[in-house]
Amino acid sequence: MKILFYSPAFYPSIGGLETITSILAHEFIRKGYQVKLVSQIPSTDSKRFPFEVIRRPSHFKLLSLVRWCDVYFQLNISLKGLWPLALIRRPWIVSHQGWYARLDGSLRWQDKLKHFATGFATNVALSQAGSNHLSVPCELIPNTYEDELFYEMSEIPRNKDLVFLGRLVSDKGCNLLISSLTKIKQKGFEPKLTIIGGGPEEANLRKQIKECKLESQVDFAGIETGKELAVLLNSHRIMVVPSIWNEPFGIVALEGIACGCVVVGSEGGGLKEAIGPCGLTFPNGNLEALTVCLMDLLLEPSKLERFRIEAQEHLSRHKPAKITEAYLQVMKEALQNKSK
Length: 340
Fold this sequence. Notes:
13 strands; seven-stranded parallel sheet
C-alpha cells in the first residue's frame, strides 16, 4: 500500500501535529508500506527521513503524488490540499487533530467548508470529545507517543516538583499555573516549577514571575527535545497541563505519564481522556480548582504512587504499534469499499 501524508506542519516545526505525523509515518515504513509526505513548512535542514518529504509542491507535483498513492491521508483537513481529489479518485482518510472553529467557538467560512468536507472522508477522531465536535461517523483512534524515547529512567533522581511543557502562548495557560504557584506560596509552601518551551508569551511570563516574587521557584529550561527532554521529565513528580482552550488530545500528557509524572490538566476537550486515570483534572481556567489539585498532591505525595500504578495499562492503549494497526485497518477498509 502506498500512503501519501498531507500535513501542513512538519519538522523542523515542533508541536503535537508534527509529532504524531512523524510517528505514524515512521511506523508505516517499519511495517513495509511506502510513504511520501507533503508539508507546507520549508526547511534547509539536512535531516533525513526514511520516507520522501515534499515541501510546498507545485500543483502539478501534488497532482502526481495523489495519482501515485493508494490512500490519501490528511492530518487535519487542509483545503489547500483537497483539490486533486476532484480529479483523481482515492480513498481520503482524515485524522482530525484539531477543532474546525475559532478559539471562541465561532465558525468562519473555512471552518464551515471543512465541516462540510468531512461528509466525503473516512474520519478518525482522537477522543470522544473530538467525535462529538463532528456531525459525521468517526473511528475513534487516540494519539500515540514515542515509547522508545519516553519511559521511566530509574537512574534519574525524581527530585523536582512541577513541570510545564508546551508552547509559551496564552491559550496554553502557563500564566494560570504561575498564579496558582503564587497562591500556594501564600499558604506557606514553595514548590519549584520548570518551564520547558518557548514562545511569544515568555517575556510576559517572566514579568509575572518577577512581580509575584517567584524568581527563586521558577526555572526556564528553554526548548528541549529528544533524550534531553525525556531525562528532564523523569526528574519531576508532577506535570501540569493548564490549557485554557480545549485541547483536542494532549500527547504531552502521555509523554509525562510515560516518564513517571502524575499529570494535572484541564478537563475540556480530549485532554481528560489522554490523562485517563493517571492524574487529576480541573475546569479550564479555574485557578482555585488548579490550586486545590496541586496542593492535594504536594501535601500528600503518597497519592502520586497510586496514580502511577495506573500508568502502564493506560499507556498500553496508546503504543505506536497498536495505534498504527488501527489506522491501517481503517485504510484497508477504505480501499475495499473503493473497489466495490
